[in-house]
Specification:
Number of strands: 2
Strand order of the largest sheet: 1-2
Number of domains: 1
Radius of gyration: 19 Å
Length: 207
C-alpha cells in the first residue's frame, strides 16, 4: 500500500506491547527461517508514513466505529484468542492444554506466561488435532464518547488514546524491548531471552 500510493499513511495497532503477531508468538523458536520475515516487517514499520501503536486494545482503548470515523480504510487482521470447546469428557482436567495456550506459553506470550505445564513427571503426551475456523466476536460494550469530534487519522487516534490514558508503545519502544531481550539472552548464551510479562514489556518499552 505504501509503495502503491505515495500519499498513503498506514497505522498498525496491536493489543500486545510488541509487534509481529504470530511471527513472534505463534512460530516455534526452532524455525528461524520463518521468523526472519521480522526484518521485512521492521523495514516497513520504520517508514515515515507508517506508525505502530502497541498496547492498544480494540474495544477497550478504542472502538471499531471510532476507527472507521478516523480512517478511510480499516483492516481487521486477527486470529483466534480463545479456544474451541470440543465437548470431550475430561478436557478441563489438569494437564490438558489447547494448542494455542501451549504455543503461546513456549513463545513467551504475556497471556500464558503462568501456564506452567508439567513436563518432568511423565514421558507420554497425547495430541488431539482438529482443524477449525474460529471467528472472534469483537463486538463489546459501547465506549464512553468524547465531547468533540476527533481529528481524522493518526492525529485523531492519538487524541482518543491520550484522552483515555492509554500507554501507547511506538515501534521505537519495540526496539528497546528487542535490545533488552538480546542483552539478557547473551548472558545465558542464547539469541534472546523473551520478556513475557506485561509489566516488563511496558517498563522497558517506556524507558
Amino acid at each position: 500500500m505504501l509503495k502503491a500510493n505515495e500519499k498513503a499513511e498506514v497505522d498498525i495497532m496491536d493489543r500486545l506491547p510488541t509487534p509481529f503477531g504470530l511471527v513472534r508468538s505463534g512460530v516455534a523458536p526452532d524455525h528461524p527461517e520463518t521468523k526472519i520475515v521480522i526484518n521485512q516487517f521492521s523495514r516497513v514499520a520504520k517508514n515515515d508514513r507508517c506508525m505502530f501503536f502497541g498496547n492498544v486494545n480494540l474495544g477497550a482503548s478504542v472502538s471499531l466505529k471510532e476507527l472507521q470515523d478516523l480512517y478511510h480504510v480499516v483492516v481487521l487482521a486477527y486470529g483466534a484468542e480463545s479456544d474451541r470447546v470440543l465437548g470431550v469428557p475430561g478436557e478441563d482436567l489438569k494437564g490438558i492444554y489447547s494448542a494455542r495456550e501451549f504455543v503461546w506459553w513456549y513463545n513467551g506470550h504475556p497471556d500464558c506466561r503462568n501456564l506452567a505445564p508439567d513436563l518432568e513427571s511423565t514421558d507420554t503426551a497425547v495430541i488431539l488435532g482438529q482443524v477449525a475456523s474460529i471467528m472472534e466476536d469483537l463486538a463489546q460494550g459501547p465506549l464512553a464518547s468524547i465531547s468533540s469530534m476527533p481529528k481524522p487519522g493518526r492525529e485523531g487516534l492519538l487524541e482518543l488514546l491520550d484522552d483515555r490514558k492509554v500507554t501507547v508503545l511506538p515501534f521505537s519502544a519495540w526496539e528497546k524491548i528487542d535490545s533488552e531481550e538480546k542483552q539478557q539472552g547473551s548472558l545465558k548464551h542464547k539469541p534472546r531471552e523473551k520478556l513475557s510479562s506485561w509489566q516488563e514489556l511496558l517498563k522497558v518499552g517506556s524507558e
